Amino acid sequence: GQNIDQPTEMTATEGAIVQINCTYQTSGFNGLFWYQQHAGEAPTFLSYNVLDGLEEKGRFSSFLSRSKGYSYLLLKELQMKDSASYLCAVRDGGATNKLIFGTGTLLAVQP
Amino acid sequence: DVKVTQSSRYLVKRTGEKVFLECVQDMDHENMFWYRQDPGLGLRLIYFSYDVKMKEKGDIPEGYSVSREKKERFSLILESASTNQTSMYLCAILNRANTEAFFGQGTRLTVV
Q: Is B94 on the interface with A (CB under 8 A)?
């Protein structure tokens, strides 16, 4: 089977750091994506990890451990505009590039 | 910039109608996907296609079919719309390197 788990909701304070976790169990693995989605809008790409380790991109970083089936998205210097849903997705193994999403984490940034 | 265009932003259809949702890309990518998004359930994969005329069922294909006659266009078909198909439908494409997926703006379908 396949399963991607994320916390449903998180709350953090403006200026702080927050870590959003994602664990996955899939029949294969060919990369993990993080997306941001504001209410009523389409998801927008944040990061892609296929090898173990940390990828840093400005205020956002994403970490992957393939042996543990685990990833996290780290958001630093939180801003009010970071209030959104954060979606973890896995590209399954094989030739057909099946892309599976978790249910998303709704992050609320408070002043 | 990659452009993924869905034919309608909002759509209202009657129960039993045949509904076509169109998705067009401008980048000649092979992999295209249709998802529906419902509160608390996230994005669920309905169908995807990895080449012209090639299609694979996703996790919730029941009540849907797809068509990919040309590489740039991937259509989702609701053969006989039902109220439980009221949802936000999102089309996505995967770039050639398989490192990023681009989404259309979404179609909010209401079946009455």
A: yes
